[in-house]
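seq as requested:
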Amino acid sequence: MNKTELIAQVAEKTGLSKKDTESIINAAVDTIAATMAQGDKVQLSGFGIFEVKDRQARVGRNPKTKEAIEIPASRQPVFKPSKALKDIVAE
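struct tokens:
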């Protein structure tokens, strides 16, 4: 399912127009992204938790040349599904 299909299905279920539904979905995604960019987590009951994990700098190896390379520290977005979501998917 892509974003357009998601918008169409949500619009059908809610009875809202596709344009209104697209605005709502875009606002939700933008808000989640902005909150995560600040380092905070977003918890949606029954769905999961969106959060940011800090990864430390480390030394890696180029598999071709076996040369050591420095991998810089980074921040990664992480999603942890809730038990309810895991159960729905497992069915």
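The chain is about 45% helix and 30% strand.
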